[in-house]
Each structure stands twice: as structure tokens, then as C-alpha cells.
Amino acid sequence: MKAYDIIIVGAGIIGMSSAYHLQKNNPAKKILVIDEEPGAGRGNTAKAAGMFRNTFSSRTSQVLSDTSIKFYSHLQNEMNHDIRLIETGYLWLLSKQQLDEYSLIIEKMMERGIKIRILKKDELKRIPELNLELNKNLEETKYLGLENIHKGLLGTKCGELDQSELVKFYEEEFEKRGGETLFNTKVHGLVITPKNEFGGPPFVWQNPKINGVSTKNGEIYGDKIVLATGAYSHELLDPIGIDSHSRPKKRQLFQLQGPDLEELLYVKGFNEEGILPFTILPKSGVYVKPDETGKGFWTGCADDLGRPYSLDVTPEKSFYEFNIRPILTKYLPQFESARIANKLAGLYACNTIDGNPYVFERHGMIIVSGCSGSGIMKADAIGRIVDALYQGKGEAELYGNVKFEVSDIGVEKRNVENEEFTI
Length: 423
Hints:
26% of the residues lie in helices and 26% in strands. It is an alpha+beta fold. Strands 1, 2, 8, 9, 10, 11, 17 and 18 form an eight-stranded mixed beta sheet that branches. It has an eight-stranded mixed beta sheet with strand order 5-6-4-13-14-15-12-16, sandwiched between helices. A two-stranded antiparallel ribbon has the order 3-7.
């Protein structure tokens, strides 16, 4: 089969950002992106909420997201590539206890220049029918463990974008520069050379290297393999004894429509667009995302204990009915009459240790994983770090001339803070 300088496995947002930056900065290299889907960004990237934020507790997450978001804004405003980026904001509705718990994190974010507003109850009353104070005598309120809303935390440089348009930009620019794509092609395994004299894996003294991928059409060889398969990384790494440092977990989204929801879409005072921000309720991270096109909302929440690590991507109507709906309707009663118009499920590549991404090298292969649901909002920075690692640089230059130590999100010399401000 044809040989390449670099083969990138995975054409999601991380794979395509990496492909773009590698081809841009190494124009003489022959680079191939390979994916089992029929096009770029058709897997878990397409099943994401399409939101971005720079409101993180760890410096690593803040830098990766903030520089990426600034590049996306530059892409839309200066490069005239419309990715439908809108800074509608992220609004956390917090109980008194939550605000106390997050006070040091909020202070740290503000010190680092992250734009945040603390909203009092009078400002939150702009949201139609929002129950700031719940009836504590109701049995269901006590049973669900719901708390009153004390204040709001609004991240102003946060919002939404069209991830399909963002992926399209990276793909088109990659191909313009001579990059190749191969879709509808599943990688079944990684090729390790040299084989021993009996045709099996190399002996330990043979200095083995991963320099190819195995597909239904045969083996394809590359001097460097970049594995950007996210939640699926362990499928290729476990059989050859490499730890992906991430685990796959299902996350679900439900599109809701109903006669009482349209008024909630448009709320003045939070952003220039006059749209309700992406809003996170005080209990269990239940959130609502305005959906102007569908005249409704998307909703979801992350469940951990009891949710297995698996590759299952079947959306469960019962998850909405028994987990999300009871909380959602207590704080926003207009959702009582809402119906599910659509539902989908994708996978997070969960870093179970510190919540930050991994970019590291093993046996000639660069592995990117562990984005923990924030891949879209950090993708540009991660692509630049992959390119720096490929070129053997100790430091990557992120958008805006921000320097970043490549080893900080590696394994051996990892230098990150635990991410404590997750949804």
C-alpha cells in the first residue's frame, strides 16, 4: 500500500485540527486522514452540543480553551469563514452552598482575566417563570434534594458555534495544502514492525515501532501515526499494551419543543443577541441550550455513578423522563408541556484523573485523548500542540503568541491542575 509521512486516524474535530496544523507547518509532508465515517466530523463531534467556554478552574483548560476560542473568533470575523459563532454566554444558576464552594475557583478565574459576571436575583428574574425559590413543603422538592437559586454566574466570552462548519474549515484547508482523506475505512489495528522471524510481534530487543494501520483493504504505512480517535482509542491501544489514559462514557442530548417554550428563548440583558444563555441548573448539572431553529431547547446532563464505561450510543428516552425532567420542570415549569422532538447520544473520552487532555508519544505514535467533553472548545490549541510534538519542539505556540509547554499535557512530565469546574 501507499506510504505516507503521517497518518492521522480519526477525522473528528481533534483529528482535523491536527491535520490542518501539521500540513500547514510541514508542507512537504504527505499526510493522510483516515476515518470509518463517510466524512469529517460525522462521529462524536456531530453529537456534541456545539458549545464553547473558557470558564475552567485549571490553568491548562483555561489556556487551551481561551486561545482556541480567540482563533475561532478570528476565523469568523477576520477570515470570513462563518462558523456561526455567537457569544450567548454560559449561565450557572447556583445555590448558596454552590456559590460558597466555587468562590475560590471564581476568584481564580477572574484573576486570570476570564470575563465573569455575578448576577443577583433581580437580574435572574428576567428569565420567564424561573423558580428562584422552591416550595420546600412539596414532597418532590425534598425528595429530589433541590435548593433555591441564590445567584447566577455568567461567563460572557462563552457561547455556541456550528461544529460542522468548523470541521469543514480545517478539512478544506488541509486538502488545499495537499492533504489526503480516506473515509468509509475502519482501522482494525495498528501495524508494529519489525515482525519476528515467525511472523508475530517483535521481540523486545528489536526496537519495535508503530508505523502503519490495518484496514479491510490492507495495511497502510506511515512514518508517524497520530491516533485521534477519542473515546475509541482503547480499542486500538489495548491490544498492543498501551494505555490511552481515557475511558468512554455515553452522554445524551434531547431536543424539546412545546407551546410554552418560545418565550423563554428570547431574554434581554444577558447578551447582545437577546437570547437565553446556555443555562445550567443547580441540581445534577442539568442544562438547557436554546434552539432557535427548532423553537425549543436541547437539554442534557452528565451522569457518572451507575453509568458504565462503554461504547453504547443508544439514546434513552427514560433518561430524560426520570433524570432530567423532574429537575427541569421544578425550576422552569414551562417544560411541563414539552415533548421530545429528537434525541441523540455520543461519547466523552473521559480523563478520570484530572479532566485535562492528553497528547503524548509512544513507540513512534502520537496519541491524543482524554478531552472529557471539551474537545471542540480546545481543538485548535490541541492541534498546534500535536504539530509541536511531531516537530520535536518542547514548546507550542498557541493562537495569540501564547507559549505552552508540550510536556504539560503529556504523561511523564505532566503538569496540570485538576479540572474542578465541569458540567
